[in-house]
Amino acid sequence: MKVIAKNITKKYDDFFALNNISFELPENKIIGLIGHNGSGKTTILEIMAGLKKSDMGSLSYTQNRKFKADLGVVLQDNEFYSDAKVGELLSLFASFYPQNVDILQLEKKTKIDKFRNEFYRNLSGGMKQRVNIAIALVNNPSFLILDEPTTGLDPLARRDLWKLINSVTEKTTTVISSHYMDEVEKNCDYLIMLKNGSIVLKGYTKDIVNSNSMSLDELYIQINESEEESK
Ligand SMILES: Nc1ncnc2c1ncn2[C@@H]1O[C@H](COP(=O)(O)OP(=O)(O)OP(=O)(O)O)[C@@H](O)[C@H]1O
Q1: What are the tens digits of pLDDT across the range 60-81?
Q2: Which residues line ligand 1 (CB under 6 A)?
């Protein structure tokens, strides 16, 4: 799915969480959404997921199915799954959709099959995220939104989660917010950087890194530090 956002603005009272932002998410690529705390990442992800309304602007999608049937979302806090077992959660979410994938195959593909009889609350952070992603994939979406999926995970769990994300998103436009620039540089084809609700950088990751002759981590610091220094 291709996603096009035009002139999106979102205000909370007088505060502009997003200020007239426009972008196009390239189809079937992994898009990294980066920016400082409070820059507007969750707000735009929630608007794209249809969970929040923008005050101005428009979103358009190229899709074959109804939008919600074609969407998978993992938000930052899914602790409300706590009292269910992994297999039960997958079956429950699959039952919401007329078309869905083979659950046993999905469990194998996301390597959660050994945990299907465990309670969600007893899983490690990394395993919970694998289950969250599996749940988001039950309807075989062509647009996947993941809000900071690797935050709080140890380096091995983070590496394994990116392996999983890369292995299940070939035919999916995937947008992922992250504070880990090394991960974004390595795994995301395209990136969008927000600063105070505006886009300050967007484009293919390789082009950005090559044309600036520095790592994304260094570029991030340069862009975000300059304002502090000039004060
Ligand atoms: N419901 C709300 N009411 C008022 N202000 C809000 C609300 N939700 C978000 N904000 C503000 O909007 C701004 C953007 O928030 P958002 O959660 O989108 O940022 P973020 O980039 O996802 O941050 P983080 O990296 O910390 O998750 C922040 O200043 C936040 O305090």
Answers
A1: 888 767 777 789 999 987 766 7
A2: 12, 17, 35, 37-43
Query: What is the secondary structure of 74-98 as a DSSP string?
Result: E-S--GGGTTSBHHHHHHHHHTT-S
Q: Residue 62 sits in which domain range?
A: 3-230
Domain count of the fold of the chain? 1
The pairs formed by 12-20 with CB atoms below 8 angstroms and a separation of 24 or more are 16/197, 17/43, 17/197, 18/43, 18/44, 18/47, 18/54, 18/194, 18/197, 19/196, 19/197, 19/198, 20/56, 20/57, 20/198
231 three-class SS = coil
Q: How does strand 56-61 pair with strand 3-12?
A: antiparallel
Could you tell me the pLDDT band of residue 82, with boundaries at 50, 70 and 90? confident
Nearest CA to ligand 1 atom 25: 37
CATH number at residue 85: 3.40.50.300
CA of 92 to the centre of ligand 1 (A): 31
